[in-house]
Amino acid sequence: MNPVNYLYLASLLFTIGAAGVLIRRNAIVVFMCVELMLNACNLALVAFSRMHGNLDGQIIAFFTMVVAAAEVVVGLAIIVSLFRSRHSASVDDASLMKL
Amino acid sequence: MENLIALLVAAPLLGAAVLLCGGRRLDRAGHRLGTLLAAASFVIGAVLFFDMLGRGAEERALHQHLFSWVPVESFRADIAFQLDQLSMTFVLLITGVGTLIHVYSIGYMEHDERRRRFFGYLNLFLAAMLLLVLADNYLLLYFGWEGVGLASYLLIGFWQHKPSAATAAKKAFLVNRVGDMGLSIAIMLMFTTFGTFAFGPVLAAAGETGEGMLTAIGLMLLLAACGKSAQVPLQSWLGDAMEGPTPVSALIHAATMVTAGVYLITRSGAIFNAAPDAQLAVVVVGAVTLLFGAIVGCAKDDIKKALAGSTMSQIGYMILAAGLGPIGYAFAIMHLVTHGFFKAGLFLGAGSVMHGMNDEVDMRKYGGLRKYMPVTFVTFGLGYLAIIGFPGLSGFWSKDKIIEAAFAKGGTEGWILGAVTLLGAGITAYYMTRVMIMTFFGEKRWQPAPDADAVPSAEPAAEDHAGRMPHPHESPKSMTVPMILLAFGSVFAGGLFSLNSAFVHWLEPVTAFEHGHPPIGAAAVTASTVVVLLIGVGIAYAQYGRKPVPVVAPRGSLLTRAARRDLLQDDFNHVVLVRGGEHLTRSLVYMDHTLVDGVVNGTAASVGGLSGRLRKLQNGFARSYAVSMFGGTAVLIAATLLMRGV
Questions:
Q1: Is the ipTM of this complex over 0.85?
Q2: What gap in Å lies between CA B362 and CA B377, rounded to an integer?
Q3: Which residues form the NADH-Ubiquinone oxidoreductase (complex I) chain 5 N-terminal domain (chain B) (predicted)?
């Protein structure tokens, strides 16, 4: 199968993720969309790795996974404590930092 | 031998340091220590002088390098001395006359409780002036120059409990600052032009430099000379400086301070020779001041202020001679030395008269003093004959030469300068005769001192006579002996100097000399000088000798009234400089408020307004920030791709 198709899939997934981040209000959904974007990147990296015939892309994909795992831990902790204090998971409610 | 040069300065400097830091325990011996150290400096000077005479004319200059003050790359500020014939002349004048004035002050300041401090300041004055004339570069000269300014400030304001003295001291200091600015600019110009400010290289290179730069340096040096030597337009401090004790006036007018300007111009002769425009300015300043001082001297009733006017006028002669170039330098210095003798003598005489007259300075309240103060009368009289240029006495030899040199300048210029100097000689004869007659001849016009408060209590023996008629008496020996010695100088110095043109040959290696030929012949010049002199004396005798002198000054003509107010110099300064300065500062403040503050405040307000609008972008919604990040990233990537495409 042509590896370029994986790239089309990756950009589709990235676009869905980015749109989700920009449009959705629920913090959990925004968070999942971020993950979607990260994984779209991973897919693109692995596809490029295959196309160019070296392993650099795959190694970076592993890095991304590790970072994403760490990010999930921190991000979920923030969302949980936000929900506890304000009884809402809407990102628009958390707008106290504006002037 | 050259190691002695530093001692010349060190002796009085040590005296100043010990006397000013020593405290009250030195009160009893302080004056002796100060006088001794001044005399020591004179003895060292005399030793160096005889040593110098023993060498050939070209090898007489001595140099002593103490240390490098600020050695930075090519910038070298050295503490180094140079003793050549010109410096030697000044050293002997300063230390000689200075020592005599020290001796005189022992008697004059006897009852002043701050006498120790007075002697400390006198020593400081001598040290600064010696540093000025011994320096081998302009920067060290500037150091001495400022030291002289400081010492004169301290001494003019010595009786600082009198507001007038404190003001006079400040005035002298401030007016001198204007001149000092000129000297510092001149030194900076020298450094940028020649890369050094040592006398040797600067004066040697002066011939090969552009005339424009030399004219600028020359004019700045002239400004400096005007400040220190009280020349128009910076002359206004000299009359007020009479607030100081009389020995100070003698020191300022004879040995130190006002001679510094003449020294500076003569020392920088090579610069002026190569810059005719600057030289012309020097001559003009000299000629104007000569007449200015003389006219002021004619109208003053205060004996010291009349003498101050006369100093201004005589220094004008010297500056004029120095502006004539090589035909005049030697005569400028010669007149300076003879003037040092007779002016010191006249001032000490005036101090002696005041000492005997309850510190009265108004000559209209003197009269007939010759019987009561014979020594003062004779010494003052000899000084008087010397200053008017009576044939045979010191002033005659030096002033006559200057008048000759002025005529020898040539062309219309020469005739004008010659006429001015001749006229000046006539006016000198007039005002000095006036002083002489009003003080020592005629009937007694003594008045009782008004009350004790009006007499400064610090003046010697003031309280004893307050409110009573003065009973004039001869001054003590410590005061009369210096006057007698100075009188000898006033009589014989000029003749000795002129013997085989000894003085001119002595200075020739330093200042160069050209013989000037006046168009009407030297004998005719001398004859006309004597005639003018007799006319001046005659007019003064007709006005003051034949008729009784009124005790209250008559109203006088417009010129007399103007001259009493120093020819409106202070009014001029007030209207032009003070008012002008006020207007200038006011408009500057206005500019500051509107223009500068306007720009600054306007910038601040527009930045504030802009950021107020930008603030609206910070709405606190995480998603709108995400949009801007996304948009920004998209733009960056698009730009990168586009750039790569190109």
A1: no
A2: 17
A3: 69-119
